[in-house]
Amino acid sequence: MIKTENQARSRSRKAFIFDMDGTLVDNMKFHSKAWLALFDSLGIHMEADEFQRCTAGKTNPEILREISGKQLTDGEIQELSDRKESVYRELYQPHLKATGGLLPFLRQAKELGIPMAVATAAGRQNVQFVLQGLQIENFFEAVVGAEDIQNGKPDPEIFLKSAQRLDVLPEACIVFEDSPNGVEAASRAGMKAILITTTHQLEELGDQPALSMAVNDFTALEIQAIL
Fold first, then answer.
1. Positive or negative torsion for Cα 63, 16, 185, 182
2. What is the pTM of this model?
3. Greatest CA separation found in the chain?
4. Which of 95, 119, 137 is the last residue of a domain?
5. Is the same domain home to 101 and 206?
């Protein structure tokens, strides 16, 4: 009985789950530039704002199939994805830096023993590019990326898998997100969310019961207040 109670207590402890693009790093305009350049080469023209609204939180295969309107093979999707991500990393490399206040926030959370995960629609190379580039990979007990999921946000799959890997209950998780799709995914997973307004403003979200607050970056966030 004691062991079971201890396990239940451990699973109900609070945990933090972070989106990556637009949350750990303010990089979405570089992703958009790379995507728009790729689609321009395919004869498809979109505005950056429209693209972000349509695709935030979705996986590359979902984006390519939705925007192109074509029945692409897996090989074609992989080739187009690789082209886009290579351009993105080249564009963003000189600007790679953590969102304001992130590093002190992660250090404090680590000191308090809060389990943390990254939940991102990005592929493995981009995850390594950011986490290793910022030297923050050791803060996270789990990383769930594009290779681990079937459905992008707003499907809750990625957050539920993150909670499972952290061995915590979904309702004990607090999600840090920059997009309406991400906040909706957190809500559908039974989690609370904090919006980082690098890419989208609060008024763009509409009615999101999971949203507990919106902030410009991590500078003003107080962990004890969040908990």
1. negative
2. 0.89
3. 64
4. 95
5. yes
